[in-house]
Design brief:
Length: 156
């Protein structure tokens, strides 16, 4: 929780929200935390040419018009990781104001998928221990911190 307060997050019920003071358009994003049976979660490194290139993030992407969160996750994780997800469990919804976009992140836990995740877009991947204090890779996208905090709180 301290990390969220330091970043300017406000806790509201069970969701982390950063107030959109600039009334910028909101980009809806689906993010999927792949959680394996060994208690590890997957991070991907943003490729060159994208905002925050080199930063580590939870896989996912924009929700297209008419898509559900699950449909967006299925499409994005197929494109990014080459896997087929079978189900998702909503973890939280949070908002973050990046310089390039104001995003609303629909964060899900993914425990059931077919295939072995690989970096289909040339991105590096890292399986991280949920029991570790912090990820072994850095830097992490700012919005990823509250996702991981919420996941750890839920699974304690």
């Amino acid at each position: 929780m301290a990390i969220c307060k330091a970043l300017g997050w406000i806790t509201c019920l069970d969701k982390f929200v950063l107030v959109n003071q600039n009334s910028r358009p909101i980009t809806e994003v689906a993010a999927g935390i792949l959680l394996d049976q060994s208690g590890r979660y997957l991070l991907g490194q943003r490729p060159a040419g994208k905002p925050y290139a080199g930063y580590w993030e939870v896989p996912g992407g924009k929700i297209e018009k008419g898509e559900t969160v699950f449909e967006a996750l299925a499409r994005e994780l197929r494109e990014e990781l080459g896997i087929e997800i079978q189900s998702n469990t909503e973890l939280t919804i949070l908002e973050y104001d990046y310089p390039h976009a104001y995003v609303r992140l629909h964060v899900s836990i993914i425990r059931d998928w077919i295939g072995t995740p690989s970096g289909c877009e040339g991105q590096a991947l890292s399986w991280e221990l949920l029991s570790a204090e912090k990820p072994s890779v850095e830097p992490l996208l700012p919005a990823a911190w509250p996702m991981l905090e919420r996941l750890k709180a839920l699974l304690r």
